[in-house]
Amino acid sequence: MRVVVTVLARDEADVIGDQVAFHLNAGADFVIATDNNSRDGTTEILERYEREGKLHLIREPTEGLRQGEWVTRMARLAATDFGADWVINTDADEFWWPRGGSLKDLLAAIPRRYGIVNAFWRSFVPRPDDDASFAERMTARLSQHAPINDPTSFYRPVIKVAHRADPGVVVARGNHALLDSPLLPLVTWHPLEVLHFPLRSRAQWMRKVELQGDAFTKHIERAGTGYHLKSYDALRAGRIDEQYESLVVDDTALERGVATGTLAVDTRLRDALRTLAAGGTLTFEQPTDADDVAYAVETAVLDEAYIVRAQRRLDALEQRLAALES
Question: What span, in angstroms and rounded, lies between the C-alpha atoms of 179 and 73?
């Protein structure tokens, strides 16, 4: 069986080398990457993997953050040109962690009738910025015991999906779903965790806000999501430093969050990258019974959050229908 990872990147030099190395050592056979006008060394990092024969690089010069289109292109190439059986569409700040065994082991165990597997997005919180790498600093993540459905939140519980290779696949924006797919999803089971590191440093965050804000105001017809707009408004108003500082979790806040159960210390990625840096081999142990119980509680919150969002969409639809009828 062959697992292909896709990744879309722009100015992600602080994370992209670790991201590709991790997945190639976690059970993926190959990476397809799209680089969108990076200027910070991201392109050169991806070119190194390309020269080693581990990665196919697409250089995309178009502006406008056409994520769905570009990821769909990579996912289809994985099926048609690179012999994929399973495809994992990632963002540059994501590390897909299998809950026992490698990525390949886990996906090979999926019954043939199912073609889509859900993964639980696990967001790590920003920590005080210093000279250490993001993985060394960011060892605390949100522990969700209640659904967060605020559209302006960076940390809402959401799923991502891995899928069987399909030359006609259409990947939705954000890689959270497939559109009009005949593949059958395996629901209520989340055997993959997506360790997510969106806010890694002040400089990275400001650049990300600037790029996304520019895309939504100049190139994308639809409105940005709540947190995109909130952050871009802060940038334009000269409050981006203040906003960033409000998001950073210092030692006192971390201690309080762990005590109340809203934060959890999670060193898995830090330890995995240390292992790779030392020339070691990654292993993914089966979770303990206690781990499984805690995980079940949080995935129940994830499912509850989707019910809440579905009800909100239904309520909005009913309001529009009522307005039309009147």
Answer: 14
